[in-house]
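Thread: Modeling a multi-component assembly for a lab meeting

Hi all, long-time lurker, first post. My supervisor asked me to bring a structural picture of a complex we are working on to next week's group meeting, and I have zero experience with this. I have the sequence lines for every component (230 residues in total). Could someone generate the structure of the whole assembly? Inputs are pasted exactly as I received them:
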Amino acid sequence: ILNVEQSPQSLHVQEGDSTNFTCSFPSSNFYALHWYRWETAKSPEALFVMTLNGDEKKKGRISATLNTKEGYSYLYIKGSQPEDSATYLCAFMRTSGSRLTFGEGTQLTVNP
Amino acid sequence: GAVVSQHPSWVICKSGTSVKIECRSLDFQATTMFWYRQFPKQSLMLMATSNEGSKATYEQGVEKDKFLINHASLTLSTLTVTSAHPEDSSFYICSATLAGGGFHNEQFFGPGTRLTVL
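Re: Modeling a multi-component assembly
Sure thing. I ran the full set together rather than chain by chain. Output:
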């Protein structure tokens, strides 16, 4: 059984605050780590697919880092906006073509 | 691009009836589709992996006779919950990968179906 854990479970921030959350996963047999953004009543949207230790990816105000040796990834949001409110999911993939194992997600609410 | 639709978005049915949920890739061919289930405050749990033209592979603990999966074309997979019971009430969501696996097997998700069994 693979354990993918995300923290915190939920987070409330004010507009303009920067925030970050964590995804931890097994450090052995790593292939890829996926981050998704899931707004209520919409489809989960892929943010990043990360594969290399030390990877850092950025999309607008959102960025992510990856440490495969210690088994964690951070997602950062700079200057949060109300439209960033969503659940952020990470998912671990052990080998190419294998299943995605999801964490429970971090629910972010950005108050105007 | 890479849009996946799911229908219906919500359904309420009586105990003992069967419910069919459709998952379609609208603008790409999906050789592989996945079906997940999510209970409240829990993570997405993979139920089965469906490959076009072949039998689905079910995860441990998922009854294949209860959750019938058909993937007859490169753009459509269906999940039928047979003889539904209240404990089957859940959120069901599908995803698809591009033919050839795409970028590190990136999955594109539908919006999900909320099933309530009375």
